[in-house]
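As promised in the previous annual report, we have extended the structural survey to additional targets. Below is the entry for Lipocalin-like domain-containing protein.
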Amino acid sequence: MKATLKALRVVAVAILAMCIATPQARAQSASLVGSWSLVSLTATRSGTEEELLGAHPEGLLMFGNDGRYALVAIRANLPKLASGNRLQGTAEENASIAQGNVAHFGTYTVDAAAHVIVFHIQRSTFPNWDADVQRRPYTIDGDRLTYITPGSFGYGEAKVVWQRMK
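The corresponding C-alpha cell record, generated without further manual editing, is:
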C-alpha cells in the first residue's frame, strides 16, 4: 500500500510538472505565433548588402501555437513559362525559378533567453536542409522579426526581415 501511494505521488508530481512546463514553453514562442510577411532577405558581400531574392521579394512565414511552421519566400519577378506547362520549362526558366525561391516546413522551438529560433526542418526546396536543425538568432522590434540564416546561400549568413501580418 505504501509503495502504491508513493508511486501515485511520483506520478502526480510528474503530471503537475508537465502542466506547469507546457504554458511556459508556449509562452516562449507566443511572441512568434502568427503570420509574417517577408520584407527582405539580404546578405553582405564585399561590404555591400545584396537582396538575395531581388527587390521586393514576397513571402509568408507562419508559426503555429502547436510548434509547427511553414515558410515560403519568392523573388517578385519570377518568369512565366513560355510553354504554359510547369513540366516543360526551359533550362533557363527552371534555373531562374529554382534560384528565385526558398521554402521549408517542419517544427520549431524558441530559446527565449538566448533569442534563438530553432527550426527542425522536415523538407525544403533546398534539399541540403532536409532533416536539418538550424539555430537562428532573432530580434523582435515591435511588429518586425529579424533573424540570421546559416551561410548556405553561397554568400555566408543572410539577414531575413519579416513584418507581422494583421
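The CA atoms of residues 13 and 88 lie 61 Å apart. Residues 1-28 have pLDDT under 50 and may be disordered. These points will be discussed at the next consortium meeting with the crystallography subgroup.
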